[in-house]
Design goal:
- The protein has 2 domains: 178 residues, 3-Layer(aba) Sandwich (Glutaconate Coenzyme A-transferase), CATH 3.40.1080.10; 240 residues, Acetyl-CoA hydrolase/transferase C-terminal domain (Glutaconate Coenzyme A-transferase, 3-Layer(aba) Sandwich).
- The chain has 16 helices and 26 strands.
- The protein has a 7-stranded parallel β-sheet, with helices on both faces. Strands 11-10-16-21-25-26 form a 6-stranded mixed β-sheet, sandwiched between helices. A 3-stranded mixed β-sheet has the order 18-17-24, with helices on one face.
- Helix 15 runs antiparallel to helix 16.
- It is globular, with a radius of gyration of 23 Å.
- Its main location: cytoplasm.
Amino acid sequence: MYMEEYRKKCVSADEAVKVIRSGDWIEFAWAASMPGLLDEALARRKDELHDVNLRGGVIISPVACLECDPTGEHFTWNSWHLGGRERKLVQNGQAYYIPLKYSELPRYLRENLKTDVVAIQVAPMDQHGYFSFGVTVSHYAAAIEKARAVILEVNEDMPGVHGGYDHAVHISKVDYVVEGGHRGLPILPSASASELDRQIAEYVLPEIMDGACIQLGIGGMPNALGKMIAESDLKDLGIHTEMLVDGFVDMVEAGKVTGMRKQLDRGRMVYAFAAGTQKLYDFMRNNPSVAGYPVDYTNHPFIASQNDQLISINSALEIDLTGQVCSESAGSTMISGAGGQLDFVEAAYNSKGGKSFICLPSTYKDKSGQLHSRIKGLMTLGSAITDTRPTVQFVVTEFGKVNLKGLSTWQRAEALISIAHPDFREALIAEAQELKIWRKKA
């Protein structure tokens, strides 16, 4: 029944991208879901197109449109969240960051933004006429609702996934289908955990109880904690996360995850997008215990917080003595993005028995090798505030953990200086005195 409609809509990549016009806004790619054939076909149209805006994020494979257009005259990348490749594009003037509270992204698309074409990669159509979004559910359904044209590139290697809602699109809503064959998925290796990461993770692990519901961010420290959980005595854990990574598979294989104590999606691992190794993609394929949802479900603080003992673990770049957290920029230079960090900081604190952790090494070295404190009297000029002072709960470095909730400015300064690197504590006290947030004790 649906195969006849499928065949009518099947075209080459070059034919499909003819629907794209100069000035269009294209919802294009996210993480491991880059539509490679469509990208290459669009790049071949470079000379006849101008001011085409591509939207996506966390790109982990090359983008032909951008590589063929170093001046940005034809294609501009607009990123919801910067990966390493995108940071370089920003410096070249080819890419720009879109400030984001990730749980709100589908609403941005429905209410605020122009979306002319959706061009994304999906899993093969099932017998009911549906294409699973696979490793990226996130915001695709919302974009499709608003688009003038929808192009799907079918990757035989994209895992079809189970979901709650908005995790698939029906052939009736699609304009063009491009068959990509077996193209594999880009691999995002797990960030290697340093000894410092492990030291920080050791302060967090005792705070996690049996039956807790886990959200992990990306990076070495969350990866270290995931491995520690897999090797721990914890049991009956649940998963409700923005990003699904290999660490969660390790926890499942170690028998730590059942999801049976969750208040929502009992027995299921909830995610908005996934990126990792082939082990992760194989684990996700047609797995009833995995549930892909749009990000306004996974990240909405009210929804996520309905799971008791929600534990949120995320990284940061710097924090000032009043508790403001920057996790996305070094001064005015964008490094990544806000993503869903604030969503889960709020959700975990509002969860019954939940806890939110912001984890960061106490220091970093600049290009000349000079050591600097990540705990600062004032934020570096231009740094973006990811988490405001009242929202931050636990802050953890290799020197300890402190809970900032309810503390006055002098108590916050005292607590944060106590987990700063010892070499910087006296200077931080002097800064706190100058800022009138240091209380001398008798």
